[in-house]
Amino acid sequence: MFRPITPIVKNLLIINIALFVVATYVMPNLSAIFALYHIQSPRFIPTQFLTYMFMHADGWHLFSNMFGLFVFGPLLEEFIGPKKLLTLWMVCGVGAGVLYSGYTSFQTQKLDNLIAEFYSEQSPENFRKCIRHFTDKPNPELVEFMDYFDRNPDNENINRESKVVLTTLRNSVLNGNMVGASGALFGVLIAFGMLFPNTQLLLLFPPIPVKAKYLILAYSVYTVYAVIIDNPQDNVAHFAHLSGLVIGAGLVYYWKKSRKSFY
């Protein structure tokens, strides 16, 4: 059975759903303004660390995050209080955005090093190293270009074109963005797992009972795995999810040590 909805959970649901409707049907450019861009992008502004978590890519993205809040949020709010639940949600969301931006900056620096290596020695091998940083499955046009580069490594036109390709791909990284409240939700999930580890939850698929600690552990292990393998084809910001887990766990640990203010 679902618990009665609590004030902070209700307000967060209303705000997120309302903004999704506005961004989808009234102001389509709102998502582009509120999304979190790479910190080197000309579109980046610091307020995006807050606003990105109120935007969602599509209806399923919104539903999955809000359903998680609806399931786990009320009991958590009743236990730790509305102020701490809101603090948990906002700190994990903003913190996940900040840490994810640091992670993407580190990844971009790795790419820049590969590009610099290519510029110092414009070989097909170094070009392929750069491409592999973007994707394990390049599109047919790019595959054809790389094959032609392999056969004509000293062709001046190919060398110039390869620089254009790398510049275009790097710009695509800088102009990419992140939206969604997943970082905040993962903070709520880890808090629920730490405070109610033995609570029985009924999965939807398959419909079997499982203790909260095992469900949250499974989510955590998968998130770590996804960050480690770093699949270029995966457009999910797994590092932001991991950041939400870590920040949420740290907050709960701190609150549990401060018993007077926690209970």
UniProtKB/TrEMBL annotation:
The chain crosses the membrane at residues 12-39, 59-76, 85-103, 184-205, 212-229, 235-255. It comes from the Bacteria. It is found in: Membrane. Keywords: Hydrolase, Membrane, Transmembrane, Transmembrane helix. One of its GO terms (molecular function) is serine-type endopeptidase activity. It is a multi-pass membrane protein. GO terms for cellular component: membrane. The keyword Coiled coil does not apply. InterPro entries: Peptidase_S54_rhomboid_dom, Rhomboid-like_sf, Rhomboid_protease_S54. Its main location: membrane. Residues 48-103, 177-254 form the Peptidase S54 rhomboid domain. Belongs to the peptidase S54 family. This is Rhomboid family protein. The lineage of its organism: Bacteria, Pseudomonadati, Bacteroidota, Cytophagia, Cytophagales.
